[in-house]
Write a structure and sequence with these properties.
Layout (H helix, E strand, L loop, with lengths): L2 H18 L3 H11 L4 H22 L1 H9 L21 H11 L9 E6 L7 E6 H18 L8 E5 L7 H14 L1 E5 L8 H11 L3 E5 H14 L8 E5 L5 H11 L4 E6 L3 E6 L6 E3 L4 E6 L12 E7 L10 E7 L1 E2 L11 E2 L10 E2 L5 E2 L9 H4 L1 E10 L2 E8 L5 H19 L4 E6 L14 E3 L7
Parallel strand pairs: 3-4, 3-5, 5-6, 6-7, 17-20, 18-19
Antiparallel strand pairs: 1-2, 7-8, 8-9, 9-14, 10-11, 11-12, 13-14, 15-16, 17-18
Helix pairs in contact: 1-7, 2-6, 3-4, 9-10
């Protein structure tokens, strides 16, 4: 183990936990041990945590108490993960419409964090979560998932993502400390153009990272630039991509350019790391000690291994706004059998639903879906949205307003949204915002975040 890894693990990370009032490193140690447990022991732990959560939500969460009473279900009826189908699926619409009922009664307000997801399938969402659920257990899951790719706390990495808006002074200080602790070189993918990409590659080369990680489409933009210009690829160590689906052709591109098999990670703003590939690259291990992942049909019934279905997630450590059988709007399938790596955690296959199309601009910008600032649409009252680009200088944004907006607020939406996205896209791209009653899914039933008709002639 390198000196800085040792320093981080034994001193810096525990000190950061104390400053922040969390137990991330302690939980990481527990996860590092439990991943090698026999499957039945992991399932027993899931059952214990599920029983505690179900008793809690019946006592403290009005939504679940009413739901269980209406269906004649007592807490004792949900004893194991296999009992969960007795409860209905929780949708994003349920959360939007019933957020106050989903909050636990008496949960300290100071321990709640507000969250927003841009909704890569076109459905923005505002929610709250507990500090313990996110900053202790969520961060521990994230760190263990990266360890499967050989990335440990203290390793030098390049993080390719969209820059966040500044928060409070304390939050900014903690973020600064976290960045120094992780030794991340942050690369803002919202600035990618033909002119800036050579400098991006040079910056990665100077950083000499142990890992390159970030949004799938953004890292592929870097890979395409290196391939198309014929320049030498920097040594980036391992590659971890997430936030969007990793398509086979993207995996092949990254192998070709960087000479590395990428690790695909499945995560969400609501639950952080849900599943990730290990060194065997044979599906993604579910973080089953903390999360129960179900693959179900339209009626919420479990599907056999190998059959695509809806991904439902139950977070066993979220007690501020518990989300039980939460529909992520993604699809995947269960993988049967044991993984060659020896871990007994269950596995799922490729996740479908988070697409990776790119918006192009006349000046050469290439913007991945997660760089557009769509997380701001939820607070504006937008229920569903979709980007359509038919010309390089024109983008259409379709919006379905939420039912809680007044007529005046609905009338003001096009101007607000056009101004918001105009900052990212720039004056060279006309943003046409249309308020519609509904957005039709594709023939496969998907509500795509972005439909782009712009081809490689603009890359």
């Amino acid at each position: 183990m390198s000196f800085y890894r040792t320093l981080t693990r034994r001193f810096l990370a525990p000190a950061y936990d104390r400053i922040r009032g969390t137990r991330s490193m302690r939980c990481l140690g527990e996860l590092e041990e439990s991943q090698w447990w026999p499957r039945d022991r992991i399932e027993d732990l899931q059952s214990q945590r599920l029983q505690h959560l179900i008793r809690y939500v019946y006592d403290r969460v009005p939504y679940y108490r009413r739901l269980m009473d209406e269906h004649g279900i007592s807490p004792a009826d949900i004893a194991r993960p296999s009992d969960l189908p007795r409860l209905p699926i929780l949708t994003k619409e349920d959360i939007r419409m019933r957020s106050p009922e989903l909050l636990a009664e008496g949960f300290p307000h100071g321990r709640l964090l507000e969250g927003e997801t841009g909704g890569s399938t076109g459905t923005p969402l505002c929610f709250v979560a507990s500090r313990e659920g996110r900053w202790t257990h969520g961060y521990a899951r994230s760190m263990r998932a990266l360890e499967w790719a050989g990335i440990y706390p203290g390793d030098r990495t390049c993080l390719v993502a969209k820059g966040r808006l500044p928060g409070s002074e304390r939050a900014s200080l903690l973020q600064s400390l976290a960045s120094r602790l992780s030794r991340d070189t942050f690369i803002d993918c919202s600035t990618f153009t033909d002119a800036t990409l050579p400098h991006v590659v040079e910056r990665i080369a100077r950083a000499k990272p142990s890992a390159l990680r970030g949004y799938t489409s953004a890292i592929c933009i870097i890979g395409e630039h290196i391939r198309d210009t014929g320049r030498d690829a920097p040594d980036v160590g391992v590659i971890v991509v997430g936030g969007e689906q990793l398509f086979d052709e993207q995996r092949a591109l990254l192998r070709q350019v960087f000479g590395r098999q990428p690790f695909s990670c499945y995560s969400s703003f609501e639950n952080f790391e849900i599943a990730m590939e290990c060194e065997a690259h044979q599906g993604m291990h579910v973080n089953a000690e903390d999360l129960i992942v179900e693959i179900v049909d339209d009626s919420g019934r479990p599907l056999p291994p190998g059959q695509f279905g809806h991904v439902l997630v139950t977070n066993l450590h979220e007690y501020g706004m518990p989300l039980i059988r939460y529909n992520t709007d993604d699809e995947s399938f269960v993988l049967d059998g044991a993984c060659p790596c020896g871990r007994q955690l269950p596995r799922i296959g490729a996740v479908v639903g988070k697409t990776g199309n790119i918006i192009h601009t006349p000046s050469g910008k290439r913007l991945s879906p997660l760089t557009l600032g769509s997380s701001s649409l939820g607070p504006m009252g937008v229920r569903r949205f979709q980007f359509i680009q038919e010309r390089v200088d024109h983008v259409t944004v379709k919006l379905v307003p939420g039912s809680g907006l007044s007529p005046n607020e609905v009338e003001a939406l096009p101007s607000r949204v056009a101004t918001h996205f105009g900052y990212t896209l720039g004056p060279e791209v006309e943003v046409d915002v249309q308020v519609v009653q509904s957005i039709e899914p594709t023939a496969a039933g998907k509500h795509l975040f972005l439909i782009s008709m712009i081809g490689n002639e603009h890359t």
